[in-house]
Amino acid sequence: MLTKLLIPFRVIINFLWALVTTAMIGVAIIIVGIFKLLLPIAPVQALLSTVANGLFRLWAYAMSMLFQLTQPMSWHIEGDLALHKKGWYMIMANHRSWVDVFVLMHLARRNMPMPRFFLKRQLLWIPIVGWGCWVLDMPFMRRYSKDVIAKKPHLKGRDIETTRRSCAKFKHIPTTVVNFCEGTRFTPEKHRQKDSPYRYLLPPKAGGTAFSLQIMGDQFEAILDITIAYPGKDDRPVVWHLLSGQLRNVYVHVRTLPISADLIGDYGNDEQFKTHFQKWLNQRWHEKDAIIEALHEKMEQAHQQR
């Protein structure tokens, strides 16, 4: 453990580790993707998808090491992770920071099928990373403003169709579909702009979660309701805190929720179901907010007792 190194050396070591392992594993995944394009034979493509998924899990192990490589980092994980890698799950998570992605990689590396994220389309053009995500069939979403949709009505629902196509691919390999339901990372500015009714969260967007359940609800074994928090002064850590060894605690609370019949419906066309689902998701978010609030109170009490 290289815990006594100065911050610049920690950053260099962690950055090089992340860069080299991502480049090596990413290139390997892209090579597998090239063979998938050249060999459009169903059994062969299934085998190659399994290989690519295995390489993705190897990358998750490599990223998990960032939390311990140069600093003592404490994990506080509560809840149910009695899962198995050959199932299908859907994650509903809050989004505090880009560090959340590495946190989910740490959880997934042993306990669940490898996750698939809904990504902004701009990320597709990032060398190695974007191309590797494309090989892994991660959906790239293109957001359209209301003004653009008003001018070009045919673009309405384009993301829904992207979700549908991507989820169809997920049916052939054990997968954990990740929904950061807030749609963006938390910041105080966004919190004010959206007039959020929650103290630590942005209002959730129900569409992506509802459409994922509509398409794959009969295949998902459960919903993993994951709450992520970073108690202390770095409540919204950036990647710099991770690379520099200043991230000391990560708190994760996992609840396994059953998928009942009333959570599957036509969100786009059934107004009654849409209202019901939004109410259900908002209630989950109130519960998440209470979990984070209790954590901060516990950390404050522990600090005062020192």
Automatic annotation (TrEMBL):
GO terms for cellular component: plasma membrane. Pfam families: Acyltransferase. Keywords: Acyltransferase, Membrane, Transferase, Transmembrane, Transmembrane helix. Residues 89-231 form the Phospholipid/glycerol acyltransferase domain. The chain crosses the membrane at residues 12-35, 47-67, 123-141. GO terms for molecular function: acyltransferase activity. This is Acyltransferase.
